[in-house]
Amino acid sequence: MRLTVSKFAQIADTTVRTLRHYRQLGILVPTEKNEQGQMVYTTEEFKAFHSIRLLQSLGLSLKEIKERSEKPGYSFEKMIDVQEQVLIRKREAIDYSLQMINRVKSIKGGEKEELDEEVLMLLMNSMLYEEAQRDIMKDYYDKEVVDRIFPKDMRKQKEIDRQTLQVLTIANRAVMNGDAPEDARVQGQLREWMDASYVKEWEVDEAKLEELTARLEPYTSILPAHLVTFLSESFAILAEETETESLHVEKTTKKIDK
Questions:
Q1: What pTM was estimated for this model as a whole?
Q2: What angle do CA 177, 178, 180 make, to 5 degrees?
Q3: Which residues are registered as beta bridge partners of 39?
């Protein structure tokens, strides 16, 4: 087979423009000429053309095809082995993204009210780095505690997601309304939230708390600084009030016992 570019384009079901583009990129360059001095495509170019198309269908760009084909020891089999791993990683990423979307929709349920856009983004960002945070937490908590904070069971996960969404919404709305961390409404909402939330599982040795906080910082920094500050101050006030109440109850109990 010795075909001019126009004839080859017809047989290969492509265009002359595409073949010229392939030639300019250096991924499909005819090596023979006919009697008129025109470049002609042979059986070898026909095979190469379909290899290129096949690799494109597997998700490789023309640039990637060129780079990989120029590497020492190149073979079509090796290239598809590498691409298989690339596609597996892409599939895992897509599956995880779909899982996040389903989790968000599951929390929303049948409610007609739309979720606040900023809160929704914060929630999905927190989901994105769960595995990394889970690995860090394993160094500070028992496996049972880590599994409760990051459950694999979808029903339990839905409840954790709901609680996370709730506290982010409380903080975001308070900031938007200009509420202070010590405001009674804010403190009341956070107290009610904490009584039913997974945060009670997060107690850790004070000596290790600073180290844990530092290791989690790259992930907590995803949250806007003003929101982190607001939540930190609000929970500090709540913790102080809770401790005061506990001391009061303890003193009252001692008086009754006497």
A1: 0.60
A2: 120
A3: 33
